[in-house]
Amino acid sequence: MLEDKGRKNVPPSSHSRSVAASFVLPLMAPRGDLREGGLSTAVGYPLDTVKVRIQTEGHYNGIWHCIQETYRTERVLGFYRGVSASVFSVSLISSVSFGTYRNFLCNICKLRYGTADAKPSGLDVSLAGGAAGAVRVVLMTPSEVAKVRMQTQRNPHSSVTSSQPLSKPKYRGSLHCLKVIAKEEGFGGLYKGCSALLCRDCSSSAIYFLTYSSLCDWLTPAGKNKPGFLVVLLSGGSAGVLAWGLATPLDVLKSRMQVDESGQHRYKGLIHCARESVRKEGLKVLFKGLGLNCIRAFPVNMVVFVTYEAVLRFTEHFTNKK
């Protein structure tokens, strides 16, 4: 990923390390996305639920108001609607994303410079990042649709309802949600918001990897082959904040398009969704959830890249020993 100071070769670009990392990364990806296991489930997913509700519903005055209302009506479970959609998809998606990035970068370097170990340019890194984002979209859109539908579904807790019987929720879980969407809306329903997601992930992934690579190269002292621990932390966190900050408008449009159920048809497409959202709520609507995205992005991506670099260095050490 990073070009080394004063050297032609780039250790993280080694093809053997790339392939090995693509198999090891499933162990790292869930922690990086804060969507499963321990800290991720306890902290990451509730924030994502709050973000989606703020982006798709106009009656919240802010983050704290959304948290209060969700807890008041649905208790703790309200923050975890659709969590299984992330739990079962994030490892595969993150692994494929990082593996795609590494292999695309190797192939680009082979085509341009004749060797996979050549020093990649900023354009090379951006193209590989954009390709990784495109592959992510193909795999993650159905699970994203299910997650957003579940997160915005109201299911009041029995302790806060009246003596009247509770209405049966439309979706009983993530898999049931996917089944209902496919039945009512067809295959296309599983890929609602795909255009916004494609624009979001291709651009943000290019910025993400380029920012990380550039910051590491800039902050690594001359004479050192690899970035240090603190450099990786700072570069990874900053890359996440910048990428998510710039991606927030498309993230808003993606969530709004995906929550549009069969029979509603509020939005005809990405441009129509953007135009209608801005017309009704002003330009500020495109930045709903910006604060939450940035708050989550820094610690999440510090962990992502620290673990990623550790995996790459481990595989390099293992390969060199052989």
Automatic annotation (TrEMBL):
The keyword Nucleotide-binding appears for this protein: no
GO cellular component: mitochondrial inner membrane; mitochondrial outer membrane
Superkingdom of origin organism: Eukaryota
UniProt-annotated location(s): Mitochondrion inner membrane
PROSITE patterns xref list: SOLCAR
UniProt entry tagged with the keyword Transmembrane helix: yes
GO MF, one annotated term: acetyl-CoA transmembrane transporter activity
UniProt cross-references to Gene3D superfamilies, sorted A to Z: Mitochondrial carrier domain
Pfam families xrefs: Mito_carr
Membrane topology type: Multi-pass membrane protein
Keywords: Membrane, Mitochondrion, Mitochondrion inner membrane, Repeat, Transmembrane, Transmembrane helix, Transport
Solcar repeats: 24-107, 120-218, 227-314
Family according to the record: Belongs to the mitochondrial carrier (TC 2.A.29) family.
Protein name according to UniProt: Solute carrier family 25 member 47
